[in-house]
Design a protein that fits this description.
CATH topology of the largest domain: Outer Surface Protein A, domain 3
Number of domains: 2
Distance between the termini: 61 Å
Number of strands: 13
Strand content: 35-45%
Radius of gyration: 21 Å
CATH class of the largest domain: Alpha Beta
Number of helices: 3
Helix content: 10-25%
Oligomer: single chain
Shape: elongated
Order of helices and strands: HEEEEEEHEEEEEEHE
CATH superfamily of the largest domain: Ribosomal protein L6
């Protein structure tokens, strides 16, 4: 049995969890999330504690046990607290602006980069170079941040690019003059 899968999930008072044999829905103050679960995963609820179990002992089902426990836990945390990521634009002239439902990035290209913001993600730009992303869906938040970062990955010579907060860029030595 999975070590992670055995851990209980504490559900806050403000979160409502509904599940059937094939789907689980989690509602909270920051939104509603739902996902499909396989028939081999069994969910039981006692008061404010969810327990994720297994209906079979096959190797492939046991490998999914910890995964689905973590997905359900992320849903509960997301609708009660929200997840947050911070991106830092590091480079001369790099800046970001939110206009309507899209974020406009100036990243040294001859044109501004326009990226549409997903519905459940909120974007705040601080001092033109710091972008705060918030969402209740951890997967969607990570995909959106990776989509933004894809336009300018951090490069190892000058350390310029779009970095996650706290990320350290391993610097390389450039050419040395003779």
């Amino acid at each position: 049995m999975s070590r992670i899968g055995k851990l209980p999930i504490k559900v806050p008072e403000s979160v409502d969890v509904n599940y059937s044999e094939s789907e689980i829905t989690v509602k909270g103050k920051f939104g509603t999330l739902q996902t499909k679960i396989p028939d081999t995963i069994a969910i039981t609820q006692d008061d404010n504690i969810l327990q994720v179990g297994l209906n079979s002992t096959s190797r492939s089902d046991r490998s999914m046990h910890g995964l689905y426990r973590t997905l359900i836990n992320n849903m509960v945390i997301g609708v009660s607290e929200q997840f947050q990521l911070t991106l830092i634009l590091k480079g001369v002239g790099y800046r970001a602006v939110v206009q309507g439902k899209e974020i406009i990035l100036n990243l040294g290209y001859s044109h501004p980069v326009k990226i549409e913001i997903p519905e459940s993600v909120s974007v705040d730009v601080v001092q033109n170079t710091t972008v705060n992303l918030k969402s209740c869906d951890k997967e969607l938040l990570g995909l959106f941040a990776a989509n933004i970062r894809r336009w300018r990955r951090p490069e190892p010579y000058k350390g310029k690019g779009i970095l996650y907060q706290g990320e350290q860029v391993v610097r390389k030595a450039g050419k040395s003059a003779k």
